[in-house]
Amino acid sequence: MNVLVVGAGGQIGTELIPHLQKVYGEDNIIAADLRPEIVEKLSQVSRAVMLDALDIRAYSQIVKEYKIERIYNLVALLSATGEKNPQLAWSVNMGALLNSLELAKENNCSIFTPSSIGAFGNDTPHKDTPQDTIMRPGTMYGVCKVAGELLSDYYYTRFGVDARSVRFPGIISNGCLPGGGTTDYAVEVFYDIIKKGEYTCPIPENTYMDMLYMPDALEACTQLMDADPSALVHRNSFNVTGMSFNPKQLFAAIAKRVPGAKFHYNVDPVKRDISASWPDNMDDSCAREEWGWNPKWNMESMIDDMLEAIRAKNL
Ligand code: SER
Fold first, then answer.
1. Which helix (H) or strand (E) holds 60?
2. Which of 29, 62, 156, 254 is the most buried (most CB within 10 A)?
């Protein structure tokens, strides 16, 4: 299967590329990104091309030239960045999705686009957030995610495009850093504790959010796309989660393993409001029932692995 990953230089893409190479064969994966220096880096590990996903002609040429059969559309500005420039977030996030869906329709590709916990808002039930519930997000990022879910389902019902997606929670990883997200604290803390022995957190200590360790997130990307379509009741998009914690709990568990680690708070009002509007913990039973979602990592095992991986970087 020929697979194109658009926006491949971000947090998910840099780890999705090697995962896809293992599953579908190294030569079948094409990594595309807008930034020349990132394409240069990607080209050391994968076939790579420069692409602005908003340029539909260039995008179309690549889909045709490489006979693409599946698109992973990872282009997005994250939640906190989106609040700094909402118009740009709309045009990038929705523009890349619309072009991806159009090209998937024209070229008979399947397509995966991540949705997010950001698709929920203050009115959503925060505990055991159901698969089908109130979705009235308060951020531009979330508005794009809800619109994106609807648009993807529209392309499926109207044109038969095989569009599928998951609502990712915060993704914790030790490859490429996330940028401009509200859940980033749960990644940054590991780097700061290893480098400096202390971390200042922008999220209030009692705010719960769902999280997922990268290996489980990668499984979601391939498992859902390879699932038997006749078993799918939902498509865009499935709740998936691996763990739920607040900063206080995460930091207590890190402190047990890193004696002397210090934690401070300097709450960012934008991130505070965003994080307060998102679920405490999602119910992901539909993903489990419809395509066998079964994450392996919990908070304790994730912390052990993150500390080991980041120590090994010798920062
Ligand atoms: N990680 C994202 C963010 O914080 C949520 O999907 O913006």
1. helix 56-65
2. 29
